[in-house]
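Chapter summary example: a protein plus zinc ion.
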Amino acid sequence: MSELYIRVIPTDPEWQPTAEAAAGTAEYVAGLFAGSGDHVEAVEPVFYERVTLIDGGEYMEDVFCPRCGGAIGMDWFWELLHAEAAVGDLGVTVPCCGAALSLSALRFEAPIGFARFEVSVRNWSRGAWELSGEELAAAGAVLGHPVTQVHAHY
Ligand SMILES: [Zn+2]
């Protein structure tokens, strides 16, 4: 069964909210899917012990080097994440041109992120597919830190 997610994350990978701000933000985001005819299966705040890949699932088709523009391939990316117990400091050497980069600098077909917190929105339906810039700004105000969104398909 296919599942769709909107993953709302702080723009700073290390940043974590208080439990109260996390709950308040989940409540605010849930309210965005509470209109007439809207539906959402679950909206949950999730904390991660370490900086964690916020992936896009099947939306991640390839990864590109920001230095030389080369297509690196998702196999390399998944092997790297599998080999590293933790994403840690996000430092990596790319195979295309040997540049030392931050994982968060890699370019993906669809946006992904790294975070220690997310508000996870599962299987929603409403008129607007994505969260708008205004909705993200309001969610960030409740959370206490600017946020962005990652869309995922599993
Ligand atoms: Zn390169």
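Key point: Residues 19-31 form the longest helix (13 residues).
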